[in-house]
Amino acid sequence: MLSVLKRQLLAFSRSGLLVALLIGNGVFLAILGLRTTGILQGLELSAYDMLLWSHSISTSIDNRIVMILANDEDQRQWGWPLGDKELVQLFEILLAQHPYSIGLDIYRDLPVPLEGGSHYERLNQLLKNHDNIFGIYKYRDERGVKVNPPPSLKEEGRAGFNDIPPDKGGVIRRGLLYVADEEGNVEEFFGLKQALHYLEQQQIYPEGDPDNPSAVKLGHSSIVPLDPDFGGYVNQDTGGLQFMLTYPGAPTYFQSFSITQILRQQPTTLEKLKGKILIIGVNAEATPDFLYTPFGLWLRGEQRLPGAIIHAYIISQILNMATGKLQPVQTWTEQQEIIWIWIWSLLSAFVCLWARSLWRFTLSTLSGLLILSFLGYLAFAENIWIPVAAPSLGWSITFLLMLAHLSNQDKQHRAILMQLFSKHVSKDVAEAIWKARDQYLSEGRLVSQRITATVLFTDLQGFTTVSENTEPQALMDWLNEYMELMVNTIEEDHNGQVNKFIGDAVMAVFGVPIPSITPEAISQDATNAVRCALAMREKMDLLCRQWQAKGKPTIRMRIGIFTGPLVVGSLGGIERQEYAVIGDTVNTASRLESYDKNVEIDSICRILVGQPTLEHALPEFQVNRVGEVLLKGKQSKVTIYSVAGRLAKARHDSEHSF
User: Fold this and answer.
1) Of 207, 107, 206, 208, which Cα lies nearest the Cα of 163?
2) What residues contact 540, with CB distance under 8 A and at least 6 apart?
3) What sign does the dihedral 307-310-314-320 (CA atoms) show?
């Protein structure tokens, strides 16, 4: 009996089913662990954004809402903040058109001008006498700052908070209807007040849900507060009554008019305001009030939206939920989500046993991901948000691990050879040499080449102080944590090549080992370098916050980037060689990194680039001119710029801001 069982187990293991079970369940447990820590939250939110975009574009924009937005030209012509006299005039013109309501999404806790006067008294009286005017106040921002509502609207109870909970990166995916202050007083969202005013005509009022004491029933919908692990979220702050935004009709914009069009009383404009829900806000670069939406990445051009338009989408969603046209987004229970991920991880292992050939493997991998995406789309069409990223990772990683297990002996031998060769140069260089070894090798050395590339230098400011006050092993662990993050950002995310480490400094090159020859390729190298620097800034900011939470030292980073001619080749003896990059471009990039430590001293990561880099790079960066300077060791001046970030819209068709 035991011998039979032993033979069966041996046959089972040889068939590959045992390995499939081990790998499938192992990947499932790993994915589950990653998901618990929140590492996969960003991927799940990205998948949610794509589903939301595909869903939103299938609905029409709400024509009950009209925007009155102050643009830069309005602010230049009428002054800003808009004076009490002009604001009274604006309200009187709008009220004459008999709109259903007017929402003022502009802080107005003080008179303009500050000394007040008759116009300020007229404004207060006007706001008090019209029960269809609503205003805003800031409940509390991330720094604890509050802004009071207009006094007359506060007295009448027609002011609501305009706070919207952002996700990481400032993306707005959730709305907030109610919040309770320290004394237990419940306050309402600005958009909710306007929506409820509109719903009064249909005798729809918020009330408790007998089936769920924590929910609010509004017409045909029961709005249940989000829990911290709702959908793809992990330990999210979901205080107050929050709900998922669906942006009905996005990315189509609401009908919109400028302040000037209203104040000049253009008849064709005023006619379109009758019986509408009006929202007065700002759409000006001079006084930015912009937010990022989940569908921003899928749009061409401008990816930000004025805050007032976000409020309009929220009002539209509230009205549609109350009237039964939309239902709040729901999700599965935690147990259902875990089973869902386990099924896809295990199924992938067994499918891979069948898909032993390359074409079957490719077809199976893509088919599984397409089916999973389609199921996620169908569920979202029914307002159910199910995990997509986690099961996709489980499916893909299991496939990759199974493929590695089934790989042939020739690939293993090649991996050993490449591992031996990569001891002398980086793995990327070794891979490039292997693919074109006849072109790159001559008598055991790399053939030297003159190329145009982009060099990036980083350094940690104040590292000496940190090293003097930190135990050696802890210092090395601390530095390795930083280096690993930055190296992955350079090489894995932005196609750069880390050339060397100089203490706490890093030198990277974009455009090697395969030289960029065409102007387009050189431009892409420069663009990748600046994108990489911005990504490193974000990673550094996150890393410092993590260090601070753990009681570890924090530090500031500087980056210098320059594009120009270089010579690349091998340096050293036959027995010990190093892939070397030399030339004035390297020196200039290094000087940019160390230039005047007082420039942008408050930034967690200062980024300085030379003008040649910006001339080569795609026009997608917001920069500030530092000046034409004489760098240490150079005889001619170099025009340098600091990089503030990427332009919010038109990534590939906007002009250089310098």
Assistant:
1) 107
2) 557, 604, 605
3) positive
Phi and psi (nearest 5°) for 63?
-85, 5
Q: 65-70 and 255-258: which strand pairing?
A: parallel
**Nearest by Cα to 284 from 89, 81, 65:** 81
What pLDDT is attached to residue 293?
A: 87
Buried b / exposed e along 353-371 (16+ C-beta atoms within 10 A) = eebeeeeebeebbeebbee
Domains present along the chain, CATH in parentheses: 2-37+332-405 (no CATH), 56-322 (no CATH), 443-646 (3.30.70.1230)
Q: Flag residues of the chain having pLDDT under 50.
A: 11-12, 14, 408-410, 412-421, 423-425, 438, 443-444, 650-658
pLDDT tens, position by position, 384-431: 999 999 999 999 999 888 888 776 433 543 443 344 345 444 566 566
Contact status, residue 138 vs residue 162, Cβ threshold 8 Å: yes
User: Who contacts 483 (Cβ-Cβ below 8 Å, separation ≥6)?
Assistant: 501, 506
Nearest alpha-carbon partner for 106 in 292, 280, 291: 280
CB distance 82 to 265 below 8 Å: no
Sign of CA dihedral 190, 191, 192, 198: positive
SS3 451: strand
Pairing of strands 384-385, 497-502: unpaired
